[in-house]
Amino acid sequence: MEDKEKLFKSLNRINGRGYKAYLDLKGSYDFGFFTLFIEHVQRDPFASPSLFRVKVPEISFPNHLYENNERKVALEDYISRAFMEGIKRFSGYRTGSGKSGIIQIDSGSQEILQRSCVNVDTNSLEIRFQVGLPAKGRRILGKEAQRIILKVLPEIVSYSCLYENLDDDLVLRHIEGFEDAEYIRNQLKEEELVTFIADGSILPRISGVSDKPLLNAVKFRSPSSLQISLETLHHDTMTGMGIDEGVNLIVGGGYHGKSTLLRAVELGVYNHIPGDGRDMVITREDAIKIRAEDGRPIEKVDISSFIHDPPGVEDTNCFSTQNASGSTSQAANIIESMEAGSKLLLFDEDTSASNFMIRDERMQRLVPKDKEPITPFIDRVRELYEDEGVSTILVMGGSGDYFQSADTVILMEHYLPYNVTEDALKVAEEMPLNRITESPSKFSFKTRIVRGESIKPFKGRRLKLDSRGASTLLVGNDSVDLSQVEQLVDSSQTRAISYLFYHYSNNFREFPVNRNSPGKGDSKSPQITLKNVLDWVDNVICKEGLDVLAVPGRKNPHNLARPRRFEIAAAINRLRTIVVNDGKG
Which residues on adjacent β-strands are paired with residue 82? Predict the structure, then answer.
């Protein structure tokens, strides 16, 4: 290890030289209260910024702030946001070409996610971030680099990484808010609830491109008949609307907040920062948004409970296509979600295939069942709950056909909810459906084995793994379209999935904790289903953290965020090259 004076002299020496002279800086430097590691140096000022790592060896944060995994995730999130705030406060002007002078950290948006950019343990605090080393053209600006590395960086580290420089009330608020949300989420199953929306929550967002709360929005107020109170760990009892397990409808006129409520519920699988407005909108962690997804690939999925004997298709018990229709994609999305372990499905009529959701009496008379291969969801929704334990929340503004199937009907009016369950049931009694229930067989599906060797992470000899925003995953020569996977909220989650693909392609032989892998690292084993793999990966990340996903040449990853098992499964299922073996029913 060198001291920072050596770094100062090195920057003087290479000032004005060609950009590649920055490679001389790689190494570690003692800054007194922290150590700086320059781990990767960009090749030119227009390339992705250089990778830096800071380690504070004597952590000043009280142990109780990170004594369990929930507190650790929340504290690390707070520190990453404080580091980002320090960048804004101290970095000042930028000068030079390309990405010169940029300092950035993967601190995220409104959701609090487990990330690889900050790691707190009992001995130290580690921060990983990027710095754009400055140049004019391709000539090194040594003096500017000295300002950034030797002056600005210590100010940022001191501001964000030393507990005495932080507002301890804000730190505690961040941690306790996260812990309260988890405490409520853990109560949902005990109380047979699927979601909880606290009174006073702000659900609308500023715009379609901003996830921040809308100013002066109508605050959520629960109807008395659906109002419940749940205990928190650190604050008073929380009052709000609880939605029970079962079949639940959200109805109402256009523009009154139906989809806004559902969107808040679907993102309630994540915890949010204090002040977001949805920080006490808590949904069970297994909720999945289901939608039609024309054009997606499907590989050997048993969709026979919804689609049976369509023209030109031999077997929907093992259905494959590279260009799914709206109805087949929605059927596959349901089966794949259940295969991954979901017991809570969310639907919005705006993004559903209408012929998959309903089939009315008139259409049944005109097109008889023997000419219609689709069993509509309305004929499976009760069976899914009663036989499979799968609850649903459906936004339905244009059809009342689901009234007789519903356990709860919530009317949204001017962004406020009203319990109209009794009214809906009365309408259903006064205007009974004369349609015939069309579910010719009992609901069933098969689990599957995805062959790891069918995932090809190399492009030629080069390992190609990355994300393009949250919606596109890059793996080898292939790109995976995740734009319709609506609960994937961060590009760093997508990148983490791409890294996982590398390990899956090797049947997890290079996973650092391969000793406990499914089938002893052999995903070709006929016993190892996709669900087995998801269970195991979940467990490993819980125990080992995101660094377990590191791939060759990318030690100490700085920009990964933890994805849910359901988005991992969604990405695997949308990779067009996967090879699947039949599993079991």
Answer: none
269: DSSP letter: T
CB 495 within 8 A of CB 466: yes
3-state secondary structure of 385: helix
Angle between helix axes 491-505 and 565-573 (nearest 10 degrees) is 70
Rounded Cα distance between 579 and 272, Å, is: 37
249-307 pLDDT, tens digit each = 999 999 999 999 999 999 999 999 999 999 999 999 999 999 999 999 999 999 999 99
Strand partners, 480: 473
Residues 92-135: tens digit of each pLDDT: 888 999 999 999 999 999 999 999 999 999 889 999 999 999 99
Put the strands of the sheet holding 247-251 in their side by side order.
Answer: 287-290, 344-348, 391-395, 247-251, 408-413, 416-419
Closest to 336 (Cα-Cα) out of 376, 296, 365: 296
Q: Is 196 helix (H, G, I), strand (E, B) or coil?
A: strand
- CA dist 24 and 2 (Å) reads 13
**pLDDT over 90 percentage in the chain:** 88
- Whether residue 521 is predicted with pLDDT greater than 50 in this model: the reply is no
Residue 357 CA to residue 349 CA, distance in Å, equals 8
d(CA 313, CA 269): 37
Cα separation of 558 and 89, whole Å?
22
Q: Do β-strands 408-413 and 391-395 pair in parallel, antiparallel, or remain unpaired?
A: unpaired
Distance of CA 583 to the CA centre of its chain: 27
| Main-chain phi, psi angles of 192, to 5 degrees | 60, 45
Statement: the pTM of the whole predicted model exceeds 0.85:
yes
End-to-end, the C-alpha distance of the chain in Å comes to: 58
Helices marked H in 191-277:
258-267
- b vs e for 163-178, b when ≥16 Cβ sit within 10 Å of the residue's Cβ? eeebeeeebbbbbbbb
**119 near 545, Cβ under 8 Å?**
yes
Contact call for residues 154 and 146 (beta carbons, < 8 A): no
For residues 86 and 585, what is the distance between their CA atoms, to the nearest angstrom?
A: 54
Facing residues of 348 across strands? 395
Residues 118/76, Cβ–Cβ less than 8 Å: yes
Whether the Cβ atoms of residue 532 and residue 552 lie closer than 8 Å to each other? no
Distance CA 97, CA 140 (A): 10
Cβ atoms of 51 and 558 within 8 Å: the answer is yes
